[in-house]
Every structure is written in structure tokens, then in C-alpha cells.
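Exercise 7. Predict the joint structure of the components listed below.
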Amino acid sequence: MNPSLPKHTKQSTRSRRVNKREELGFLIPALVVVLVMSIFPLVSSLILSLTRFQYSSSGLQLEWVGLSNYAGLLADARFWGGLGNTLIFVFVGVLFQYALGFGLALLLTQKLVGRRFFRVLFLIPMMITPVAVAYIMKMVLNFQIGPLAPIAKAVGLSELPWFADSNLSRLLVILGDTWQWTPFVLIVLLAGLEALPQEPYEAAQVDGATPSQMFWRLTFPMMLPVSSGVILIRLVESFKIIDMPIVLTGGGPGIATESTSLFAYYTYRNFELGKTAAIAYLLVIVVSVLASVFVNTVRKRALEVAG
Amino acid sequence: MKKTVQITAALSLVVFGLTLSGAQAQALKYAGKTITVVTFDGPQIGEPLRRHAPEFERLTGAKVNIVLTTFGDLFPRLLTDFQNANSFDAGVFAPQWLGDYVSAGYLAPLDTLIKGNAALKWGEIAPFFREFSATYAGKTYTVPFDGDFQMVYYRRDLWANAQYKKDFKAKYKYDLRAPRTWKEYRDMAEFFNGKIVDGKRIYGAVEAMARNQQSYWILGSRASAYMQWKGTSQGIFFDVANMKPLINEEGFVRALTEWKEIQKFAPPNVLNYGTGEVRNGFTKAGESALAIDWGDIGSLSADKDSVVKGKLGSVILPGSDEYWDRDANKWVKMAGGKINYAPYAAFGGWSGAVNAKSKNQDVAFDFLAFVGQPSNSNEDVTIGITGFNPYRTSHFKSADLYVKNGMDAGDAKSYLNAISSSLRNKNLVLDYRVPGASRYQQAMDVGVSEALSGQKTPKVALDGVAAEWEKITNELGRAKQLNIYRQSLKLQSLQ
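Solution:
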């Protein structure tokens, strides 16, 4: 019999217990933060979305209404209009941002004079608070007295019904959002471009590939992981668009530029808390589904390329 | 030794000073009490409250915290606070929200406190604000600070031009004068649109037409004379018998149709004009001959960068020689060629109210009364940054204070006449003050915007608003809403 064995087992059990306690000690703060900051709001807003808030002198009254907030929203043309607008802002806006961001990133990888200056300059819109950007855009896009007015008047832009026509109003919002968020796309893509290996380019050059061929056959495919990452981030973020439409158009004309988030804000302003929570949840569902579809599509494509 | 004496003397002085200031503080009525007042930071509205707070503190010993928030946040923030924390002793907000706040018992009736405060000079406040705007179901809940109703502004210099007078008469077969009806307003906007004034092309009119920028109040102003002719208690928004919306009645449809036409005589981007653009466009850019606004353009005309100083004409909202009889379902001509005027108290004017659960109701009320008393309000209503417009008889007795604060004497005279004739009118239109007022308003905002942008015809857009209003009324309870609406109009409840 080995006398040291029980002692050793005792020690290691105790040490495991101590370790578990230490682990728990480290985990609890993080768990509390996640519970308080994430799980609790999620659960409470879910409950709120199933109620109707009524105020009375006796205090807060939440009337349980089941799914009627959701049913009401799904039958509300304003909700669907808002969702349609949001999808336009998301897909058209992110397309613009990606195309512009990629173009500018490619430009900044070239050995141009003042390259560093332009890098900083392009990033400025992203550093400004979104509401301030919206007000700047409101001035810039005022084709009557804004800084672009002389050009706008010369090319006839000032005569267009920017605030009466639904599509033109949406375009204004997309332009504003593009101006603000292209720098984010640019900075991520620029980092990706600078990390690309040089060997494939040297080999392609030896084989006599044209710049266009090198872009479509090398740069673009090699940038797919970075591109899909930045597109996913922008897609999810764009669904929350509110600053630009509220400042530029107030959601008008009619509801032509009212995004889902703006609709939720207006609903909150009326103190319809249950309905506001329901809008938020519906938006979460839409974003989750679209994000999953996007991620799966990209994964399949990546596997095809790899295979 | 000398040093010890010096230190002892200094300490004695400090102790004496502290004792003296403590004694003084004790002598002050509200020493040691603190109140918190919440309002809108435009910076209007917040500005006068913040400016008057230190003087009130000096006189009473109370500490006044002014909490400022955005307009959009004010309504829910007050509601949330009334429900839970009750951290606000008073609020300065839109009387339109009384429907929500009073019906839930959140506000303290102020009748007794008002009677006990001679400095407030309650009887000097124009009857409309005392009897309708500040009251609810027979009790007084607010101290008015602001006389909110819209008026028409025009360029006196253009109207006085002999050539324009001649040309106008030749074209429209009547004299060029301050517009008396909406038809005249339209003609004048058309006439002046495109004229070159001071080397610059001007437009006929500027009005707030943007969404989420208070355009729904302009529609109320344009429809009021078509919809109300029997006095304030008639109301223009709901049928007082059954709460059926009147928003899609012919009077409103005609008003919206006429308003849409004004776009032809307005800047190309007028659909994005809020009240800020209207005020700046008219007073600073001098871009139009006519404008519709609350009293603000009057006080802003005195600003340094105003181009309309000495040229400003103000007039009561245009009326109509016929009205829409909602019961008979037809247009009826006014007898004897008279004009029906129905100035609309859009928004109703910023007013202060006291939280029913505040432990310092007396302090909170005294602060509101201090801000509203003539010695302060007489000055406040002449300053553009306050956002407060005249609402007391003393405010339009003399133009001296307005002239002292930079307004041209001729402008001030015209401005005060317009205010006086609006306030003396027994047919002033009250804004709707029912629970969910902001929901009704938002539905109207969307409908107005759809019609102005041409997405829908005025009739179809207003039918949509009416349907939405019905939905809201049904959800909040028709009988309850009807009784509250009737009470706001000083009509008896229907049991």
C-alpha cells in the first residue's frame, strides 16, 4: 500500500475545489454583466412586447395582450413600408459603401502623393457622431443654399423634387449613410489588401496577366473573407439606421424614408412600449434570418473556392 | 502672538460670516428645499427658466434644478417619471398632454395656490388660456407662459408699394391688403412669387411642410375657419357626440388641397421646411412675401441679422366667407358677407404644471408663478430666444418693451394688433387634449406628408388619418376619450 496515495488524492481534490472556486470567482462578474446587460433586457423586452402599457395614478399597469402587438404590426402597412425602406437602405447603401470603399482602398494602396493625408481625410466622416453627420449632410444636400448649390443648379439637380419624390428622398438618406460609413469599409478592406501575399501577383505578372485579370482572379477572391466580414457588419448595423432619416427627412415624404428603427422610435415617443418592443423583436428576427442566409452563402462559396 | 491674534480674528470673521449667511438662509421662505423642473431645450423654453432660476433662489433660498431634454423625449420622460421616480417636481410642457397626465392623476390642481399668489396676476392672462388651455374638467392645472397661436406674416414694404397695389388690383379685382381669407392669401402668394425684391427673386410664401416638423399644426390653422364657427366649445377634430374623427370632413380636405397648391409659390424644397427654415427663410433670408408661424417671427424680426425689421406686417389667421356645416354636410355662406375667423391655438403654449406627488408643491408652484408673473413675462415675450409669445393683456397694451428690445415701432404695432385680435376672438380653436394626443398627431403627420408630396390625394390621405384615429380611439376606449375631449372643450360629460 502506498501511504502517499490518499494524501495526494486529498490534495488534488482540494486543489481542484480551490481551482473551481477561483474559476467561479473569475466567471461570476462576467456572468453578472451578461445577465444584467444582455439577458435581462432581452427577456424583459420580450415580455414587454406581449403587453400593452397603460398609465394610471395607481402606477404602472401592464395589460397582457399576448401576440396582438405582433399581429397588429404584421397587419400594419406602416410596419411593412418601414421594413421595405430599411431593406433598400441596407442593400443599396451597403453595395455603395462596399464598391466605394474597395475602390478607395485600392487607390490608397498605390504609391500616390499625399497618400497618408488622404487616409486620414477619408476617415473623418466615421469619427463624427452620426447625428452631426446627418446635419452636415442636410446642409450639403440642400441644393438651394448648400455648398453644392452652384453645381447642383448648373446641372439641374436643384430642380429635382428631392423631398417630394420617394425614391429621391431615399437616395438622399443612402448618400448620407454612404458618406458616413464608407470609411469604415475602406479601413477594413485596406488592412486586408495590405496583408495579401505578394507571390501570386509576381507569378501573375510573369505570366503576363493584366491589372483587371489580377483584380478579378487574385485580389477579389483573396479578399472574400475580409469582404464578407465587413459586409456582414455593415448589413447588421445598417438595419438600425435612424439618425440619417430622422434628421434629413423625418421619415417623409409620407413614410417613404421611415426605417423600422425610426418607426420604433416614433412609437416609443407615443409611449407605446409594448408595440415598440415588438417592432424591435421583429427586426431582430429579420436581421438574424438575413445574416444567417448571408453567412451560409458565403461559407458555401468559400468551400467551393477551396474545393 | 501677533500671528495667533490674526488667525483668531480671521476665524472669528469666518464663523460670523457663516452664522450670518445661515441666519439669512433661515429667514428665506424655502431655505434648504430643492426642486427639479424638467422642460424642453430648444434652447427656447429652457432659456427663460434657467435665467430666472438664480433670482428665485436668491429670493426664496430654494435650490432649483432645471433638467433639459429634447422635445421628442419630453412626453415619455415625464410619463416615466410620474409613474416611478417622481423626481420632477414640475414640468413645462405642451397643454395638449394634459389629457394624458390629468386623466391619470399625475398633476396637482393649482386653483388654491393661484388664488394665494397675487404677483402672478392671474386675471391678466387672456381668457382663452385661463379658461381653456390651463384648465381641465373644471380645475386649473397649469400656469401659462406662452401664447401659442399661429398668425400670418407679410412684408409691409411690398404691400405699400404703389406699383404692386395697382398691378394686384388689375389682376385680382380687389385691393392689395393684409389677407383676410385663405383665397386672398393664395392670390397674394401667387402675385408676389417671382418678384425681384432688393435684387433677389422672392417666393410667394413659406410654410412648414416637412414631416416631423409640426406641419400638422399648419393644417389645423388652415382648416379652422372652415370647421368652427360656433365658438371654442364646438371643436374641429372630433364629433362631440360620438368621437368620430372630423379630420376627413370637407373643411379639412379643402384646407389641405389649398395648402398643397401653395407649393407652386414656395421654394422648391419647401417640403423639407420646418418652423426653423420658415423663420430663417422669412426673417433672415427675406425669401418670401408671406409666412405662417406662431408669434416667433415677430420677436425674431428684431434680431441683428433680420432683413425684415421695419417691414413686418402681422395679421390674424385668414378666415373664410363660408364654413363646412358637418351636420348638414354642405358649405354655408356667412351671413351679410362676413368673414368667419377661427385662430388656432396650435400646441396651446408652453405651460408649467406641478407633480401631484411632489413633496415641494408650494415651491414648485411659486417658481412657475415667478417665471410667469408680469415683471418677468412682460420682458420674456419680447425676446426671441425665450420661445414665449404674448398671452397676457399687459403684453399687448404697449409696444414700448418690444421697441426697447429692438423691434421696430411699426412692426410692433402690427404684431400686437394681430395678437390682440386673435386673443379677443371667441372662436379660438383649441388643440385636442385627449390621452394619446401624440398618437393622433403622428397619424396626422404621416397623412399630411403623403398628401403634400403627392403620394395620395388630400381626401385619400385624410381618410387614412381618420381610419387611424378611429383605431386609436377604439383602443383607448371611445367613451373615455369622448368624455375627456368634451371636458377639454368645457362641455358636460356624457354618461
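Discussion. The first helix of chain B runs from residue 2 to 27.
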